[in-house]
Design a protein that fits this description.
Number of helices: 6
Helix content: 55-70%
Strand content: under 5%
Order of helices and strands: HHHHHEEH
Number of strands: 2
Length: 132
């Protein structure tokens, strides 16, 4: 662990060469330009937000159009329409699933003080015999 820390410190002590500096700046500018271009043409989140509503309207319309031809198919399409409308409200009840403990290099990083373990403290206090 100490070797890794020393290696990192040695790398940070060295000044960045001019070519590395220029290379990093141009890469950052390219990434920013690319993300701007992608942001302009991004339809995904907006489309996925209204997709269940579109499905509900289309299936309801098909159910109405086919009610004289096939009552069973019309009923199935009606229930599909209702289900797709209910899907609109599902994301409100979902909770974000984030890991409870952050990890760095495969190890858990917790900055909270450890809670006292009651059983361990009792075992240490009374398990060793009397202390004078």
């Amino acid at each position: 662990m100490e070797d890794e820390v020393l290696e990192i410190l040695q790398r940070t002590d060295r000044p960045i060469s001019f070519t590395d500096h220029v290379r990093r700046r141009t890469n950052a500018r390219r990434r920013a330009a690319m993300s701007d271009r992608l942001r302009r043409f991004q339809f995904g989140p907006r489309l996925t937000a209204i997709l269940p509503l579109l499905v509900a309207v289309i299936t309801a319309g098909l159910g109405l159009a086919l009610r004289d031809v096939s009552p069973l198919l019309s009923t199935i399409l009606g229930w599909t329409s209702v289900a797709s409308l209910l899907i609109l409200f599902v994301p409100r009840f979902r909770r974000a699933t984030q890991p409870s403990v952050k990890r760095w290099r495969g190890r858990d990083m917790t900055f909270d003080p450890e809670r006292p373990d009651v059983l361990r403290s009792l075992r240490e206090r009374f398990g060793r015999g009397r202390r004078f």
